[in-house]
Specification:
single chain, 65 residues, mainly alpha, 1 helix, 0% strand, rod-shaped, transmembrane, transmembrane helix
């Protein structure tokens, strides 16, 4: 066992290290999540457009092609 006393500076420096590690991981994940949401939104818009277009063709009068 060590007889060293744990000081406030020790605790603060350790917490700072942990916080910096977590912040780096969060920033990496944030970029991936943002990209995923953007792609998902684009897919939803495209599908909505295509379904609306198909629905519009069904309602169109039969005289036009």
């Amino acid at each position: 066992m060590s007889n060293e006393r744990i000081t406030r500076d020790h605790v603060e420096s350790r917490l700072k290290l942990v916080q910096d590690e977590l912040q780096g991981k969060v920033n990496d994940k944030k970029a991936a999540i943002t990209t995923g949401i953007s792609i998902g939104a684009a897919v939803i818009i495209l599908v909505s457009y295509l379904l609306g277009r198909r629905s519009g063709r069904k309602r169109r009068s039969t005289g036009r092609s």
